[in-house]
Amino acid sequence: xxxxxxxxxxxxxxxxxxxDGTGDVSAAQGALHRLIEGQxxxxxxxxxDGDVQLALxxxxxxxxxxxxxxxxxxxxxxxLITLRQMLEEPFELALRSAARSSAGSxxxxxxxxLDSDAVADLLFGLAGQDGGPGMSRHVAKKATxxxxxxxxxxxxxxxxxEADPHTWAIxxxxxxxxxxxxxxxADEYGGGRPDRMHSALFARTMRGxxxxxxxxxxxxxxxxxxxxxxxxxxxxxxxxxLRGAIAGxxxxxxxxxxxxxxxxxxxxxxxxxxxxxxxxFDEHVEADAVHEQIxxxxxxxxxxxxxxxxxxxxxxxxxxxxxxxxRLAAHIMxxxxxxxxxxxxxxxxxx
Length: 351
Fold this sequence. Notes:
Layout: H1 9-19, H2 26-42, H3 50-61, H4 78-102, H5 116-128, H6 135-141, H7 145-159, H8 164-167, H9 175-188, H10 198-208, H11 224-238, H12 243-255, H13 258-270, H14 275-306, H15 311-337
Helix pairs in contact: 1-2, 1-3, 2-4, 3-4, 3-11, 4-15, 5-12, 5-14, 5-15, 6-13, 7-10, 7-11, 9-14, 10-14, 11-12, 11-15, 12-14, 12-15, 13-14
């Protein structure tokens, strides 16, 4: 991914550091450490802080496809890991606060003796409370062509690397939970067919609407909350202590996917797009109806049966996902309802 434009002193300082190579940069790292401390003290809402979220996104990207022109040895640089952890700590605290607010009336059952079906029931209960601002219904019935393009731009930040954050959990699980995650991920990656990978299907959808399908091509265009939604997955996936959270995230992601994707597909068909564009959404209608059962009962439920102490983390991952997704949808719908763009100015050409 090309290095995006800085959004403030933290991301700007990070990009200058990465450009310096991997020699003796201890002084620069120390200066950035002090800068981050000072900036975090001034931040009221880390989830909506574009500077923090962009820096964290790019730090995580070193563990995925990397950044253009940046030495791959930065991935495990101890000083850089320390800087990442400085940003992760307040971000996780903000996610936990958001998760508590979105939990609603669903109360976790006692962990002792909780079986996989009971865990799945808790998660389906959370999914059933997901009212949201009705973005999928808007896309199905009212969205303009420009709004459909904006919708794809927001989704591209994750969908062009779909499934990768959850895959980090595979070596961190055992038994039934591991087997369930591998089964889900095999479908996400096209069952061995590169053209059927969900990321490839989404890229085809973007091309069908005249958008750039290069991964990271629209990072500069999306607001902080769009980055936060992806950073949340990376936080959960890359930290073994949060393996319960990534399992809960995936479970709720699958449980709230099938019906919205059906509506999204209908919205694109309404404006005359064919199967080459709607295949991504149509695939998720069928696949996620199966995945939600596997993710709820075998992945999350199997994990809690094996490690009962992880129930709170499973529920944290699920409720945080609902909270951030609702916040992103509210941002998009709020802009559309006032006739403005949900993207950062300047709006990319063709959107």
